[in-house]
C-alpha cells in the first residue's frame, strides 16, 4: 500500500480478498485499523453472472448446470466450483471475524447499489467518516446497461459507466436448477444475515 498522509484515505479493491483464506491474517498484520467494505449480491445471481463472464471468454465451457452439480439427479451441488463457492458468504466471513471485529466491516448490497446508488454510497461515506458529497445528483440510470452511471464532473469528460464486461445478458438457466441453488444457499444466507445483522432479502 502507498504511504498515506494524515487526513488521507488509501483504498484498494480486490474482490478475491474476501474469499482468499490467507488475506485476513495478512491484512491484519499490515494494519488492524483497516476498514473493510464487502459488496455482496444474491449468490445465485452472482454464480450465473460469474458463469456468463467465463462463457464470454471461453464459449466451449460446459453448461452452467453441468458445472454447478456433482450429480444433477440427486441435486448435489459442486461446492468446489468457484462460481458456487464464492457465494457461501457466511463461511468466508467466519474466516475474517477471526481477525477483525464486525465494526470494521460495511456490507454493501449489490442490489441496492443498482436500485439506490446514492443511498448505498451515503452509507459508504458515513462508514469512512467522510462528508456526504456523492448524492443522487451524481447518478443517472443507463437503460442499455441496466446499471446506474456516474454523471460527468463539472468540466470533466463523458459520464463514467461500468465497462463492457458488465450488464451483459445472462444465459437462460433451467428454473429447477435455479430453485435447487436457492435451496442450497438459503441456510448460508440466513447465517450471513445473522452474522451481519442485515437482511439482504435474497430469500
Automatic annotation (TrEMBL):
<feature type="binding site">
    <location>
        <begin position="166"/>
        <end position="170"/>
    </location>
    <ligand>
        <name>3'-phosphoadenylyl sulfate</name>
    </ligand>
</feature>
<dbReference type="InterPro" id="IPR027417">
    <property type="entry name" value="P-loop_NTPase"/>
</dbReference>
<dbReference type="GO" id="GO:0008467">
    <property type="term" value="F:[heparan sulfate]-glucosamine 3-sulfotransferase activity"/>
</dbReference>
<keyword id="KW-0808">Transferase</keyword>
<keyword id="KW-0325">Glycoprotein</keyword>
<dbReference type="InterPro" id="IPR000863">
    <property type="entry name" value="Sulfotransferase_dom"/>
</dbReference>
<dbReference type="Pfam" id="PF00685">
    <property type="entry name" value="Sulfotransfer_1"/>
</dbReference>
<feature type="binding site">
    <location>
        <position position="49"/>
    </location>
    <ligand>
        <name>3'-phosphoadenylyl sulfate</name>
    </ligand>
</feature>
<keyword id="KW-1015">Disulfide bond</keyword>
<feature type="binding site">
    <location>
        <position position="41"/>
    </location>
    <ligand>
        <name>3'-phosphoadenylyl sulfate</name>
    </ligand>
</feature>
<comment type="similarity">
    <text>Belongs to the sulfotransferase 1 family.</text>
</comment>
<feature type="domain" description="Sulfotransferase">
    <location>
        <begin position="30"/>
        <end position="186"/>
    </location>
</feature>
<feature type="disulfide bond">
    <location>
        <begin position="149"/>
        <end position="161"/>
    </location>
</feature>
<dbReference type="InterPro" id="IPR037359">
    <property type="entry name" value="NST/OST"/>
</dbReference>
<protein>
    <recommendedName>
        <fullName>Sulfotransferase</fullName>
        <ecNumber>2.8.2.-</ecNumber>
    </recommendedName>
</protein>
Amino acid at each position: 500500500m502507498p504511504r498515506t498522509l494524515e487526513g488521507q484515505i488509501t483504498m484498494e479493491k480486490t474482490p478475491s480478498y474476501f474469499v482468499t483464506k490467507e488475506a485476513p491474517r495478512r491484512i491484519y498484520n499490515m494494519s488492524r485499523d483497516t476498514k473493510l467494505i464487502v459488496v455482496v449480491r444474491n449468490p445465485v445471481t452472482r454464480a450465473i453472472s460469474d458463469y456468463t463472464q467465463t462463457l464470454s471468454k471461453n464459449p466451449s465451457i460446459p453448461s452452467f448446470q453441468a458445472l454447478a452439480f456433482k450429480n444433477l439427479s440427486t441435486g448435489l451441488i459442486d461446492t468446489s466450483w468457484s462460481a458456487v463457492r464464492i457465494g457461501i458468504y457466511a463461511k468466508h466471513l467466519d474466516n475474517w471475524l477471526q481477525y477483525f471485529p464486525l465494526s470494521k466491516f460495511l456490507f454493501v448490497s449489490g442490489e441496492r447499489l443498482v436500485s439506490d446508488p446514492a443511498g448505498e454510497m451515503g452509507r459508504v461515506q458515513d462508514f469512512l467518516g467522510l462528508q456526504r458529497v456523492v448524492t443522487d445528483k451524481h447518478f443517472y440510470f443507463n437503460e442499455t446497461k441496466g446499471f446506474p452511471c456516474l454523471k460527468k464532473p463539472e468540466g470533466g469528460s463523458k459520464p463514467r459507466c461500468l465497462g463492457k464486461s458488465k450488464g451483459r445478458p445472462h444465459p437462460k438457466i433451467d428454473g429447477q436448477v435455479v430453485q435447487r441453488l436457492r435451496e442450497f444457499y438459503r441456510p448460508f444466507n440466513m447465517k450471513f444475515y445473522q452474522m451481519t445483522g442485515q437482511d439482504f432479502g435474497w430469500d
